[in-house]
Write a structure and sequence with these properties.
The complex is a heterodimer of chains A (258) and B (290). By secondary structure, chain A is an alpha+beta fold. Chain A is 32% helix and 24% strand. Chain A has a single domain, classed as Oxidoreductase, molybdopterin-binding domain (Sulfite Oxidase, Chain A, domain 2, Alpha-Beta Complex), CATH 3.90.420. The chains are: A alpha+beta (258), B alpha+beta (290). The interface between A and B is large, with 53 and 49 residues.
Chain lengths: 258, 290
């Protein structure tokens, strides 16, 4: 009698547990579909940003490695060849006609040819690239310090972000160009460079030629490739989806330091 | 009153005389019950969203990078056999296992999905990395604040010294306790009002070793936090090693939870559940057991 009762009780608990698990999983999906719940979850992002800043300091340097650590071949992720005729024409000519357009909230907007960018104070660094997906690769990057370029164009006092407009469209029909943005702390960081070299050679097209951003204390999607134009802004709310980047517009965190 | 918050105290009176042991005792303090509940929710959300994040790149490596020339030590994926049949596989080192139906390839609502961990184990159920990350970071904060509160509570209330640290007597009885556990024999009378020695050791290892380690290894994946001490992540073998350790410790925690729930089920589940919900635990009488 007691045994049968116990067995029934065990069956009940088992079923209740399974029902609870199924309910939980379905509930999680339903919550994910709402508008308010992801917004509540998103509250953690600003906490992550301010705590990381407080713990590490604004000027903390990303770890650097030696040539022995280099990945044999630096993985290309996302766009490998931009589907953009203007870009294709620039590439066909070895980027001799390329010029980086810098504007927005700056005192002296101007264009920089590749040669001019290469003449700016530069930095060479061997760093680890951490993709949001989970993989890492190590490469040696050479590029113009973004701080040096900003010293030339002189950002206005209300400039809070640098926006990177890129040549690679993210839609099949050639629309929705990739873009990214970083704040002035990262823009003036010594390891933030406009890279034109990878592993001692010219930056390959698959890795973002002729210019890609390196912002070493954040995940890979912040490192915009095929950069064509810099825009200094006070707010990025009016650009594309308004979240500060192509992937941010798809729900990814603007602060990608974690 | 302090007594209601201090589970071990009522049992002291009955310790010498099993017959006078109270039938019902306050087993878990309200603070412990609330923190346990928050922890259950946070750990489940962290585990399932963590597997969702893992699914974005279902491979684990040792070292700083994933492209060092060394293959992944663990890889889960889907591919077609020579006959064109889709299968799910899990490769550990050089050994590959067919895990179709669970890992690599699984079905959900009659449809096949090529995803490393199956939809019923991940949040959200299908690959949505951005949202898995949102879930993970939100519940990471809840878990962290709750965990810190628990540690402070155990120290301030004396819960740690009184209920969790094994006594010398406990440690001497460890062999006996192992045999009891294997035979599924559970303490009765006054002994049932205290944690047994294996239980104490398990809780201490989880609270003070595994959980801090899983948090630290999670933080180690942050490129910003890695800037501390010129790259402290290297002390643990590098960023990809840290990711591997995070994954392994998460599964060790699952192993703990499975044993924990098993022990609850075989030692009077309703009584145990009630003690974690209302605090009241019915002490199993010594003579009745058999």
């Amino acid at each position: 009698m007691a045994d049968r009762e116990r067995a029934a009780r065990r069956r009940f608990l088992g079923r209740a547990g399974a029902a609870l698990a199924a309910l939980g999983a379905a509930g999680c999906d339903r919550l994910s579909q709402t508008e308010w719940f992801p917004r509540v979850l998103g509250a953690a992002e600003s906490l992550n940003h301010s705590v990381a800043k407080a713990i590490t300091g604004r000027k903390a340097m990303a770890q650097e490695f030696t040539t022995a650590d280099l990945s044999p071949s630096f993985r290309s992720n996302g766009t490998a060849v931009p589907n953009n005729p203007q870009y294709a024409a620039l590439a066909a000519n070895g980027f001799r006609e390329y010029a980086l357009d810098v504007g927005g909230l700056v005192a002296k907007p101007r264009r920089f040819t590749l040669a001019e960018l290469q003449a700016l104070p530069s930095r060479t660094q061997i760093t680890r690239h951490d993709c949001v997906e989970g993989w890492s690769a190590i490469g040696q990057w050479q590029g113009a310090k973004l701080s040096a370029l900003l010293d030339v164009v002189q950002p206005a006092s209300n400039a809070r972000y640098v926006v990177f407009h890129c040549a690679d469209p993210m839609e099949e029909d050639g629309t929705s160009p990739y873009y990214e943005s970083i704040d002035m702390d990262d823009a003036y960081h010594p390891q933030t460079i406009l890279a034109y070299g990878l592993n001692g050679a010219a930056l390959p097209i698959k890795n973002g030629a002729p210019i890609r951003l390196r912002v070493e204390r954040q995940l890979g999607y912040k490192h915009a490739k095929y950069v064509m134009r810099l825009e200094l802004v006070e707010s990025f709310a009016s650009i594309a989806g308004g979240q500060g980047g192509y992937w941010e517009d798809q729900g990814y965190q603007w602060y990608a330091g974690i | 009153m302090n007594d209601s918050a201090h589970p071990a105290i009522p049992s002291v009176a009955g310790a010498h005389d099993a017959i006078s042991a109270p039938a019902l005792v306050r087993r878990h303090a309200a603070a412990v019950r609330v923190m346990h509940l928050i922890n259950v929710v946070a750990i489940v959300a962290l585990f399932m969203s963590g597997l969702g994040i893992f699914n974005a790149h279902p491979a684990l490596y040792w070292g700083e990078s994933s492209y060092s020339g060394q293959p992944a030590w663990l890889e889960i994926g889907a591919r077609e056999t020579a006959n064109g049949e889709p299968i799910g596989y899990t490769r550990i080192g050089a050994r590959e296992f067919d895990t179709t139906g669970v890992l690599g390839l699984s079905s959900d609502g009659g449809r096949l999905f090529a995803q490393a961990f199956p939809s019923w184990l991940t949040v959200p159920s299908h690959l949505w990395l951005a949202l898995s990350r949102s879930w993970h970071f939100f519940f990471a904060w809840i878990f962290l604040l709750n965990g810190l509160s628990f540690v402070l509570y155990t120290l301030a209330s004396g819960h740690l010294a009184r209920d969790l640290l094994p006594t010398r007597l406990d440690l001497r009885g460890i062999g006996h306790s192992i045999v009891d556990h294997l035979r599924l024999r559970h303490p009765t009378g006054a002994a049932a009002t205290r944690y047994n020695v294996l239980q104490k050791i398990a809780y201490l290892v989880v609270v003070f070793v595994l959980l801090p380690l899983v948090v630290l290894m999670g933080l180690g994946m942050s490129p910003r936090l890695d800037t501390l001490f010129g790259g402290w992540v290297g002390w643990f073998g590098g960023r990809q090693s840290v990711r591997s350790i995070h994954f392994i410790v998460a599964w060790l925690l699952v192993a703990f939870v499975l044993v924990h729930v098993f022990e609850v089920l075989v030692s009077g589940p309703l009584n145990q559940l009630r003690s974690m919900i209302t605090g009241w635990y019915r002490v199993p009488r010594e003579k009745e057991h058999g």
